[in-house]
Amino acid sequence: MSPARALLLALVLVTPVTAQPKAGKVQPDKIAVGTVYTGATVEASFMVFEPGTDPKIKFDVTAPKFVKVLNKDARHQQFGPGNDFVCGTVEITIDTAAAGDLAGEVAVTLGDTKVKVSVTATVKAAKKGYSRVLIAESPFHSTSTDDGGIFQAWTDLVAASPLDPSYILVRRDKPVLRDLELAKLDCVFLDGGGLFWLTEADLKKLRKYAEGGGRVVVAANHFFRGSVRQANAVMADYGLEMRDTESRVMGQNEVTLGKDDLHPRLVKDKIESVTFHRASPVAVTDEKKGRVLARAVGVGAPGDGFVAAGTAGMGEVIAIGQSLWWSWITPQRAKGADNAKLLRWLLVPKGGA
Length: 353
Fold this sequence. Notes:
Layout: H1 3-13, E1 26-27, E2 30-37, E3 43-51, E4 59-62, E5 67-78, E6 84-94, E7 100-110, E8 113-124, E9 131-136, H2 152-159, E10 163-168, E11 187-190, H3 192-196, H4 200-211, E12 215-219, H5 227-235, E13 240-242, E14 254-257, H6 264-268, E15 274-277, E16 282-284, E17 290-295, E18 305-312, E19 315-320, H7 325-328, H8 331-334, H9 339-347
Parallel strand pairs: 2-8, 9-10, 9-11, 11-12, 12-19
Antiparallel strand pairs: 1-3, 3-6, 4-7, 5-6, 7-8, 13-16, 14-15, 17-18, 18-19
């Protein structure tokens, strides 16, 4: 399967909550990034739908002063016989130079469709000691979901935690990590999309960062095609290998782990249960380097984990066998378990694995 075909399949698979498009639909319907800190990079995108087949239709975008339009792109896509749409994607970045509450609307004209998309952020002064986390790909992107409210679990977590996140969009056939200085970061967090488009240069840069003392967290699974292969490229020689599979047994794709399935350090930090959905197991290939943090159940081999950590020189890599992390921590998916608390624990190196 070609990379482009695999990515298209992945994007179809990762939008299960997305309904069929209709004229004027916006996906996600709002960009609410919550709390960020001065100096952070905050990128997002959304998609507007207009019936038709001609991607050269009128496509105008007007943004408030705190929003810069990075790119706009229109393409034709068919969602079934005779169900043709022009999909207009708008990529933006939010100015975080100064603290303040930001709110405005991006106005878009796509053919006969006119919509306004709400963009909000609370920018606070950067705080010493907070974990500077680079997130690639930004969860606030055009193929994630049509419900912008689904990110509230994550934005609430950031607001209540010592996390200073930056969000970057991933672009096809371009380096994911660009010319960013990873040494200034405490953690790099890659989801399925961020993993999929990693170049060889990205991999070298990422592994050098980890071996120099950084923390790299990868979230991937069989469900997000192509992400497991790339996760394993990141983790090679660090004592871990994710298996590109998921449970085929009805009822075992939804798993809740209790204290006995979790590493004692997690339990000590009051993480007592975690849920997983269609998770892929991670094998510990070298017990001197790797350790399981959350045991795999219903899939994989004895000793596998749904979450595992491996030593990378002076740093470490952590594998989460779960894509769509921003959905994984929502109340609907977590069902009262400590998914959000575990994610926080993993992204704050000073208090985590």
